[in-house]
Amino acid sequence: MDATYIIQRPLITEKGTFQSNELNTYSFRVHPKAKKPEIKDAIEKLYGVKVLDVRTLTRKGKPRRTKKGYDTTSETKRAMVKLAPESKIELF
Question: What is the value of pTM for the model shown?
């Protein structure tokens, strides 16, 4: 997969901002089938930084009520990427 296809968008939240400032860890929404080595390579290629660790979590879809009954939203995958101390992403 292409790097821009793997990394869909950065996640900017209060917790994510704290982690980026204090722990040098950044959060991204990634493709649901992306593996940790692929995510690491994509971040290093797109932002030109050194990645130390990648943690992922998959959030299951929630049931939602529609006109025709119940449906579920799609599941999403997040990646928390810890960078080397000398690396920083200026996007945040």
Answer: 0.87
